[in-house]
Amino acid sequence: MVAIIDYDAGNIMSVKKALEYIGADALITRDQDAILSADHVILPGVGAFADAMAKIREYDLENTIKEVVANKTPFLGICLGLQLIFDSSEEGVGVKGLSLLPGKIKKFHEGMGLKIPQIGWNSLHFTNDCPLFKGIDEGEYVYFVHSYYLMADEERDVAATANYGIDFHAAVWRDNVYACQFHPEKSSEVGLKILKNFIGL
Predict the structure, then answer these.
(1) Which CATH fold topology does 2-91+102-199 show?
(2) How many CA atoms lie within 13 A of 82 on its CB side?
(3) DSSP letters spanning 41-97
(4) pTM of the predicted model, to two decimals?
């Protein structure tokens, strides 16, 4: 069973539907026992960093998430879910993230001459042999919607990069923690393959 953590963020139902499409048993929940007993756990989301962290703490989910990681359960952050697993964000100054991995979330600068948020397809450059991307070709396109981007502190955590005016970290992997800034559930066959790879861990 895949537990999809419910903290009132957007886009959660799309993740559930994509998982069910590939044959996974998925449950949207904030019940601690259900999350901790799941075979895989996903932290999805569309929204604002500070509001999301407030909800995670209101629902007493922070320690649950950290226990999932400590238990070595495969864990996947998607979009805002990627941002939340790091230390802080320019979107919520002074708000502490989950700090599962070290790094900061920064805002795309308006002066780059690009539309912000980045909405649409962008290609991935793989930086290691992350299991999420097994069987996926270099340069494949995935779907992004974001105004903020990750700069991880440690290069070893970076699984893929993309470029939108600047190079940014599009996916990370350390041990059982995986996360992607893009939306696999909206990324057609490539995205479904990524979700299948995750479920296969």
Answers:
(1) Rossmann fold (3.40.50)
(2) 31
(3) EEE--BS-HHHHHHHHHHTT-HHHHHHHHHTT--EEEETHHHHHTSSEETTSTT---
(4) 0.96
| Residue 55 near residue 8 (C-beta atoms within 8 A) | yes
| Residue type present at position 12 | I
pLDDT at 11: 82
For residue 193, the surrounding DSSP H or E stretch is helix 188-199
> Which amino acid appears at position 46 of this protein?
V
Q: In the numeric block, which tokens belong to residue 99? A: 């700090």
* Residue boundaries of the structural domains of the chain: 2-91+102-199
Distance of CA 78 to the CA centre of its chain: 2
**Which of the residues are catalytic?**
79, 183, 185
Tokens of 159: 């699984």
pLDDT of residue 82: 98
